[in-house]
Amino acid sequence: MESIDKTVVYSDKQLAAPLGTMHFMKTFPIVRSGAIAAFLLVSLQACVTTPQTTVAAAPSSEECVVLIHGLNRSWRAMEPMAEALRTAGFSTVNVDYPSQSGPVETLAPMAVETGLSGCRDAGAKRIHFVTHSIGGILLRYAHQTSPIPDLGRVVMLAPPNQGSEVIDITRDWPTSELFAGEAGLQLGTDPGGIPSQLGTVDFELGVIAGTGSINFVMSAMLPGPNDGKVSVESTRVEGMADFLIVSNSHRYITESEEVIRNTTSFLRGGSFVDSVAHIEPARKRGALPGS
C-alpha cells in the first residue's frame, strides 16, 4: 500500500479563529455563566498545526473513502477509522481543514473537493464518505450545491442533521464564536440554520448516534439521550438507510471499535451489523441468540 502525505497550506487570515465581541453573559440556570464560559474555553482544542490531508491509495482498488473530521478537531481524530478502512481494502483520503476559518459555505467546498480530488487522483471510480459532526453537514451542503456524480455510500457519526440546541442557547454568549467558529454558529435548530435548509438525502446513508456524554454542561442543554453535543433525535434525517445508537461520547465516537466495525460493514454492504433494523429480522428468523 502506498501512502502519500499532502499538506494544504492556508493563509493566516483563514487560520485565525474569530474572536467575536467580548461582553459579559447573563446567568444560566444550571451554574454561573462565568464557570460555563471557562469550562468551554478549557474544552476548546482547536487545531493549531498546519492542516494536512493524507492520501493512501490501496492496490487495485477503485473504491475510496473520504474522511472529514468535526469542529475543532484535525485529521488525527479520523486516523483510527482511516487505518481500519485501509486494512479493509479501501483507498482513503483523510481530509484536514481549518474548521474555524469561515462559514459552512466556505468550508464545505474546501473540505469536500479536497477529498474528491484525492480519491480521483488515486484512480477511484466510486467515492464513499465517513464524516464526524459538522463534517456531515459540510458534505450535505456541498452535494446539494453541486451534486457529486461518483458518490457512493456515506456514514455520518454524530451529525447535527436537525441542528443542535446547544447552539440555540449559546449563540449570543461571549466567547461562543471562539469555541464554535462561524460555521458552528450556523448549526442551530432554527429555520435560519444551515441544517434546516438542507433537504432529504438522496444518497445511501447510515447514521451513528452516541449517548455516552462526558460533558454534563452541554448535555443539560439537550433534550433526551445525547452525546454531549448533539441529541440522538437530531442526528436523524429523512432518507437515511440505516441507523445505529452506540454508548460513545461525541468526542470519542470516531475511535470506537464498535463504530469502526459498523462503518466498514455499511460501506461494504449498505447496512450496520449491529443496528436494530438489521438485528430484529434475524431474531425473528431464529438466527440470533435470544430469539
**What is the average of the pLDDT values?**
81
Task: Report the CATH superfamily.
Answer: Alpha/Beta hydrolase fold, catalytic domain
User: Strand sequence of the main sheet, in spatial order?
Assistant: 1-2-4-3-5-6-7-8
- CATH class identity: Alpha Beta
Q: Return the domain count.
A: 1
Low-confidence stretches: 1-49, 279-291
Strand runs, count:
8
Largest sheet: 8 strands, mixed
Q: Could you estimate the helical fraction of the residues in percent?
A: 25-40%
**End-to-end CA span:** 43 Å
What integer value in Å does the Rg equal? 19 Å
Q: Structural class, judged by helices and strands?
A: alpha/beta
| Count of helical stretches | 11
Q: Remind me, CATH topology?
A: Rossmann fold
Written overview of the protein:
It is built from eleven helices and eight strands. The chain is globular and about 50 Å long. The protein has one domain: Rossmann fold, CATH 3.40.50.1820. It has an eight-stranded mixed β-sheet with strand order 1-2-4-3-5-6-7-8, with helices on both faces. The chain has 291 residues and is α/β, with parallel strands linked by helices. It is 34% helix and 16% strand. The chain starts with a strand and ends in a 7-residue tail after the last helix. The chain has helices at 12-15, 33-43, 79-87, 104-121, 134-145, 165-170, 176-184, 216-219, 232-235, 257-269, 276-284; strands at residues 2-7, 52-57, 63-68, 91-95, 126-132, 151-157, 205-210, 242-246.
